[in-house]
Design brief:
Length: 189
């Protein structure tokens, strides 16, 4: 694992943010961003159990770099242009190339919320998924009650398709989730 030569070229930006692959030197800032946002992350993120060390931050970056190389998932750091600060992450995972769909995920650190960062990041990510990967459908699975994530899905034009019972395991419990779908022909760049 280590450096990502081919992935470094994959950067997408608008006037406020930059999406780029994670680098190992992001480990400390990722660790800080996650711990700053514990109260917002724990109820909604399956990967976070409240015990996220700096070593785990490094391991996670190596894991996503490896997944990128294998074309299994594409996880982008969301960085603020003005400051270079790591604001969060957005990703495509559970990619099924044969059927042309993938799962979309996102989170923004607490001090970056309320500014449309997640919406901007997911729009850029969708452009990558529909354009470069030639996917036909993106799915966003949101835990029932996570209104902030619902709003992101709605703002990018994803359609609410229904509630999936006991679809997520969150905080050790089976939880219902809302399925949002965005089709390539619906995506407005």
């Amino acid at each position: 694992m280590g450096s990502l030569t081919c992935a470094v070229e994959k950067q997408f930006a608008d006037d406020k943010i930059l999406l780029r692959p994670f680098r190992l030197h992001d480990a400390t800032e990722l660790f800080d961003a996650v711990h700053e946002s514990i109260s917002e992350i724990i109820p909604w993120m399956r990967w976070f159990d409240g015990d996220f060390s700096l070593a785990q931050s490094r391991d996670w970056i190596e894991y996503v770099q490896d997944a990128w190389q294998k074309k299994q998932a594409y996880n982008f750091a969301v960085e603020e242009h003005r400051t270079g600060k790591l604001l969060g992450s957005t990703w495509l995972s559970q990619i099924v190339y044969k059927h042309g769909y993938a799962n979309v995920g996102y989170w923004v650190r607490s001090t970056g919320t309320g500014r449309g960062i997640a919406t901007r990041a997911v729009r850029l990510l969708a452009g990558f998924g529909f354009g470069e990967l030639q996917l036909k459908r993106l799915e966003i699975l949101v835990g029932v009650g996570n209104r902030a994530s619902e709003r992101v899905a709605e703002k990018i034009g994803a359609k609410r398709e229904g509630i999936l019972r006991h679809r997520l395991q969150l905080e050790g419990q089976a939880r219902d989730a809302i399925m949002f779908g965005l089709l390539a022909h619906e995506y407005a760049r």
